[in-house]
Structure to design on (66 residues):
């Protein structure tokens, strides 16, 4: 059965693109504590996802490229 959090994880049990942008958005809105606990716990414990989210949140501070 799929939970809300499952749609934010990829087949290799890391955050997928949706999960990363979801988390990044939560950081910017200071709402990380309201995310599904599965996501918060994973980013807390996973260096790879935490770094990707950090990079994304910094990139999002810049003006849109292109
Ligand atoms: Zn991960």
């Amino acid at each position: 059965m799929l939970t809300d959090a499952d749609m934010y994880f990829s087949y290799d049990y890391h955050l997928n693109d949706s999960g990363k942008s979801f988390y990044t958005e939560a950081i910017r809105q200071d709402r990380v504590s309201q995310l599904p606990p599965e996501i918060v716990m994973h980013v807390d414990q996973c260096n790879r996802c935490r770094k990707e989210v950090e990079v994304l949140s910094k990139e999002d501070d810049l003006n849109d490229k292109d």
Q: What stands out?
A: The pocket of zinc ion is lined by residues 14-15, 42, 46, 48-49 (CB under 6 Å). Residues 46 and 66 are 31 Å apart (CA to CA). The chain has one domain: 5-61. The two ends are 40 Å apart (CA to CA).
